[in-house]
Amino acid sequence: MGDGAVRSVRADARRNIEKLVQSAADVFRERGLNAPLEAIAQRAGVSTGTIYHRFGSREALIDAVVPDYAEDQLDEAAAGAEACADPWDGFALYVERVCELQASNLALNDVISRNHPGTAKLAEVCRRSQEQARRIAERAQADGALRADFAVEDLLFVFWSNAMLIRFTAETAPDAWRRSLAFTLDGLRTGAAHELPTAALTPAQVEQVMAGRGRAAI
Fold first, then answer.
1. Contact 98/91 with Cβ under 8 angstroms?
2. Is there a contact between 137 and 91 (Cβ–Cβ < 8 Å)?
3. Please, are residues 177 and 169 in contact by the beta-carbon 8 Å criterion?
4. Are 33 and 70 in contact (CB under 8 A)?
5. What's the start-to-end Cα distance of the chain, in Å?
6. How far apart (Å, rounded) are the C-alpha atoms in residues 78 and 135?
7. What tens digit of pLDDT does each residue of 30-57 get?
8. Total-model pTM
9. Cβ of 52: how many Cβ atoms within 10 Å?
10. Under 8 Å between Cβ of 64 and 52
11. Which of 142, 124, 184 is nearest to 160 (CA)?
12. What confidence tens digit (pLDDT) does each residue in 158-173 have?
């Protein structure tokens, strides 16, 4: 094979990878991270085997496609919250913005609700995002606006509930999650809070729950 033919093959391979990455980003956004790989391959105009040949697994494809834009979007949400002069407004803005990301992009819905077992890069993005959320919540608690018994792990309940609500109401009432979130935020403000019947999950318990969700999804 001559040099020209080799360069042509390499160029074709690069184009296939580029088409796969773009197609995966589009399909994951529309259908979530559990979207059929066949749908991604069909949109890219390649065989499903090409995905495994180039990336090795669904998890590797997700880690090649999703973490960068997930990190950008979550960083933007955190930056907007931290820029708010009022700590409660910053906390509420952060939670609302993250829920908006869930509603607008089903890949991010899965990322935020931690439905992505086996994706190392994406797991690191989520760990970093959780630390951002912790700072935002602690700022609101220090101001006396966010109830003192709230833990950042409690946000997972908010985002898990929102994830399911979005999936079930997307076609008939796409803004229904906003009403649910308004009730939730009212319940988190200091003032009319009642004592909670149980403690927040510990970080270790969160990891156990997420591992169980991954097994249940298989």
1. no
2. yes
3. yes
4. no
5. 44
6. 9
7. 999 999 999 999 999 999 999 999 999 9
8. 0.84
9. 15
10. no
11. 184
12. 999 999 989 888 888 8
Q: Measured between alpha carbons, how far is 161 from 157 in angstroms, rounded to an integer?
A: 6
Tell me which CATH code domain 67-217 carries. Answer: 1.10.357
Q: DSSP class of residue 36?
A: -
Task: Provide CB contacts within 8 A for 46, sequence distance 6+.
Answer: 16, 19, 20
Amino acid at position 90, single letter = G
Cβ atoms < 10 Å from Cβ of 12: 10
Residue spans of the domains in the chain: they are: 3-63, 67-217
SS3 56: coil
Give dist(CA 209, CA 214) in Å, integer. 9
211-214: long-range contacts (C-beta < 8 A, 24 or more apart)? 211/117, 213/114, 213/115, 213/117, 214/117, 214/118
Alpha helices by DSSP H, 45-154: 48-55, 58-65, 67-82, 87-104, 106-112, 120-142
CA distance 153 to 86: 22
Fold that domain 3-63 belongs to in CATH: Arc Repressor Mutant, subunit A (1.10.10)
**DSSP secondary structure code for residue 153 in this structure:** G
Torsion sign over Cα 157, 204, 124, 48: negative
Name every residue whose Cβ is closer than 8 Å to that of residue 73 and which is 6 or more positions away in sequence. Answer: 101, 105, 108
For residues 218 and 211, which has the higher predicted lDDT (pLDDT)?
A: 211
Q: What is the pLDDT of residue 8?
A: 42
**Residue 147 DSSP symbol:** -
Helix (H) or strand (E) holding 47: none
